[in-house]
Design brief:
The chain is mostly helical and 140 residues long. The chain is 78% helix and 0% strand. The protein starts with 6 loop residues before the first helix and ends in an 8-residue tail after the last helix.
Length: 140
């Protein structure tokens, strides 16, 4: 009595013979199913990659928009501070030249106060924490 090989054995090359045409048909169906599964998997992965790329592109656009906003803010803030610092040091020079100790004390106090202040204050700590939080939602 001849043993009928299983379809999986046919596909793995272990069958010594194909006993029935039904075995050949089953093997072809199994191959077709495997090819179809592989095609579906590939299509699914391509879709996932496209979704990931779309999310990445959106994130890059958001980062660029945020970068422009931060850049403008910092440029304006530091421009204002630069003008204030220049005025204070000009005042220090004038006070030194004239020997006005009260004006000198006021101008130096202004420089010290300005140096203690951050142009973006405590917000920078919040921003740094947000960068470290992968679950943070950035609103634009």
């Amino acid at each position: 009595m001849a043993t009928e090989p299983l379809t999986g054995e046919i596909l793995r090359g272990r069958a010594t013979q194909i006993a029935l045409p039904a075995d050949a048909v089953a093997a072809v169906r199994e191959i077709a199913g495997l090819v179809q599964d592989a095609w579906k998997f590939t299509e699914s992965e391509e879709t996932k990659r496209a979704e990931i790329e779309a999310k990445r592109a959106t994130a890059v656009r958001s980062i660029k928009a945020s970068e422009r906003t931060i850049r403008i803010y910092l440029e304006n803030t530091f421009a204002e501070r630069r003008d204030v610092i220049q005025t204070l040091f000009t005042g220090i020079d004038t006070a030194l030249a004239s020997g006005d100790n009260e004006a000198l004390r006021t101008m130096v106090g202004g420089v010290i106060d300005l140096a203690r202040q951050s142009p973006i204050g405590p917000e920078i700590r919040d921003l740094t924490a947000a960068f470290g939080d992968p679950m943070h939602v950035w609103e634009i």
